[in-house]
Design a protein that fits this description.
With 459 residues, the chain is mainly alpha-helical. Helices cover 77% and strands 0% of the residues.
Amino acid sequence: MFLDYNEEENMSLNKYEEMLKSNRVLFFDSNEFENIIQHYLDNGLVNKAKNALKIALQQHPNNISLRLLGVEVLIFEGQHKQATQLLDEIEIISPENEEVYIQRASLKSKDGEHKKAISLLFEALERTEDLADVHALLGMEFLMLDDYSNARTHYEACLKYDPQDYTALYNTMNCYTFMEDTQGAILFLNGYLDLNPYCEVAWHQLGMQFVELKSYEKALAAYDFAIYSDDTFVGAYIEKGKVLESLERYEEAIENYTLTLHLEDPLSFALLHIGKCYEKLNMNDMALQYYNQTVNEDPLLDKGWKVITDFFFRIGEYQKALYHINKALDIDHENAEYWIRYAKINSRLSYYEEAERGYRKGIEYGDDGLNNWLERIDLLLKLNENEAVELTIQIALDKFPDNPELIFRYIGILYTNQKSAKAIDLLKKVVIAHREFSIILEELFPKTYAIKEIQKWVA
């Protein structure tokens, strides 16, 4: 069943496909062929579209609309030169046809010539009755140029002619977002809602703008209007739940997230956040139930495994935390945040080699804050990897050249590695300004700290 077609068009498509199976030749009017070819193109079935086009042109050789579909097929296949030649032929026959300009604009756009595409679309705008579609195309071209003001103007014009074009509505909102004009977006949406008061998408977008301004009560009111307009609108329940959660109204948030589970297949996002709300309410059994349901529903959701990891870490179940962070890493092996969690869990379990590996990987993948360097260095010290400690501190000092925590560790490892002269020289330079950090030597390098030559400077 072809859900995008009405019954008559389904019959045409079925009739055409039965014709191909039987090797008979049946007659179709040009509109039927247009719908059949467009269906194949919309579903990426280019070869089927080409075959249907060939048969269509045999029956309707001079039909302009079919020949324009031929241009679309050529563009789809990247045959821009042939598409241009065919457009030249069509323009001679039908010089005022707006589709010629639209297809030429499409060619220019695909070649990156967006200003020329815009010029051609303005030509089409003068010739077409379908103003909404051409304004939408102009909006997209201006977006390609990062000209959000003009893009917004054309998407708003599109909505003027076709208020139900929600793609244009979303793109209008994107333009306001890119322009960081939240107040302008609210003003536009209020005007749009004056004319379309039951548009759930617009109410939903208005709620998101109020969230941006941290006007949470207004956001909740907007989401309520979205739900009133369409009580099956899952997005509104989700966003309302997120606001209620941020306001620490966890029971109400749970209620909204739960409603989404009855409207469609369980959303892993909703399950996850129900779990988080229960955890905030100190209802750990319920929280874990929903966390487990999240990963059962979507085992490839790494965030689900991460949240369960954090849950078990907080309650001191480190082996279970380790199991779940490994699941997250199986999905996203280059996630620095997960590697740092892996390191912390292994450290709590006294698996120091794995903990050091976790910090090393976390730093490698971008989480290279000072604390992670210090934790890694201290783990290497526990493992008696003194050469690695010295090298790691040198690398860290490139990023944090004046950090006393690193410098005093460096002094300690230099002395340990029998580079006492260099260690004393460095100690003389920093001890006056950072004497309080000499406690690092006492805690991490007690034998070095006890040496008289060191005591002379730190006492």
